[in-house]
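Q: For a teaching handout, I want to show students what a protein-ligand complex looks like in token form. Below are the inputs, and the small molecule is nicotinamide-adenine-dinucleotide. Please produce the holo structure.
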Amino acid sequence: MYERQHFINGKVTDGTSGRFGPIFNPSTGKQQGRVALATKGEVETAIAAAADAFPAWSATSVVKRARIVQNLVHVLYARKDELAEALAREHGKVFSDAQGDVQRGLEVAEFAQGIPHLIKGEFSDNVSTGIDMYSMRKPLGVVAGITPFNFPAMIPLWMSCMAIACGNSYVLKPSEKDPSVPMLIADCWREAGLPDGVFNVVNGDKEAVDTVCTDPRVKAVSFVGSTPIAQYVYATATANGKRCQAMGGAKNHMVIMPDADLDQVADALIGAAYGSAGERCMAISVAVCVGDDVADRLVAMLKPRVEGLKIGHCMDPEAELGPLVTADHMAKVSGYLDLAEQEGATIVVDGRGFKNTQEGFEDGYYLGGSLYDNVTADMRSYREEIFGPTLQVMRVKNFDEAVELPSIHEFGNGTSIYTRDGDAARAYVNRVEVGMVGVNVPIPVPLAFHTFGGWKSSAFGDINQHGMEGVRFYTKTKTVTSRWPTGIRAGAEFVIPTLNS
Ligand code: NAD
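A: Here is the structure, written as tokens, with nicotinamide-adenine-dinucleotide included.
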């Protein structure tokens, strides 16, 4: 049994609340540690450390800030497997997938190394006689991140690399389910040479979240998690005068046109629906087949592959997916599978009875892959996010019906279309009411130099994660109008200046 505490002002700091949350190993089903849950006062201490560190860090030259982020890139590459193993043992995803989790965060660090170029302002020479005008991007101050369990490396790195490169100081409140990797990230920042107080971690629950969202010293809050909490964080943070971006849940549809290469589709769906046990906000959870013929053929191709999924503990090199994150989450996913059955969906493969027979892992939180056919838009099991290793097949008559399903769904995170028809693909890209779209690509997660964000109930706030949107989120512009030389006399002007001179 180990303990995870907080990381404040460059040091691991023991919690004083006396409150702890359990840390489970999802592969074994056993508790392996506990995490301190911060009091309001402890969060305030972390915010104070960040506020104290801000003046010096924001005044550090942009090239030096870039070099520290560059150091972080090297440290993360050197410690990638250490982070991935800690991640797999608390999250349950298999080691190779955990390496990908670290890698996707690391790629944002690689992008943030370019901050001297990214943060450049604008300059207009001689906008009026002797007058120049320029805009600068200034850091906000103390900014905070609140992150979910499912990407404990990638999402804290998405947020903190952009924020810190832009000159802000940072307080991270990670998921209490897998707190070890965020603490390791803190250690990586320290090893990279980041000054004390610039990156802080407070572990905790609602009390910590509420403190971050209401403390006046915190200027911006970035949240990723489920939709109800995203709405709550967005409402609370903005009511308290903060800039906020809050990413929520998802239900991602893949449209399969009659001309699609079904072998390619089946490969794509097996990875995108069942990888990471479906605990990805960009997992494909719905396959929308255009025409019964496509659906019949696809279901027949998928059935043996879903039945044959290799499920095992997180460090099993043969396993394609591991357990779910907690017993509670496994029960929730099972409940949705029960509901889908009651609602009349056709069970093609039922993962509910799966038992892992690997010695020492019999009590882990495993579910087999499930495949449901004849799912309809009125079913609650379709309307809500399941977040487990299951795929729902829907049948529509034509392209228009296929575009409509994801477009009117409450969530709008990701979607994809499989087709050989460029017209259909182009029309889908333009018409579908979803933020991230793949064409013959199953999980269209944008790379670090583009921007990540869904639409509708999948994201609240106007500015997305990373890419240039990340620079915009973590900076505010200051625009200067400057007259040189001072010797020019314009006389007193009583009307608003316009472009006449
Ligand atoms: P969650 O909403 O339960 O938790 C997210 C964060 O909110 C955690 O830090 C948690 O401690 C905190 N939190 C939980 N309950 C709270 C409460 N009542 N008050 C205040 N704070 C609270 O989400 P999760 O289960 O950790 O993550 C899975 C969810 O995240 C899924 O819905 C998934 O779709 C979503 N997600 C979305 C994206 C995206 O970019 N849209 C990315 C990853 C995950």
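A: Two things your students might notice: Residues 146-151, 173, 175-176, 205-206, 209, 224-226, 229, 247-250, 281, 385, 387, 413, 454, 458 surround nicotinamide-adenine-dinucleotide (CB under 6 Å). The mean pLDDT is 97.
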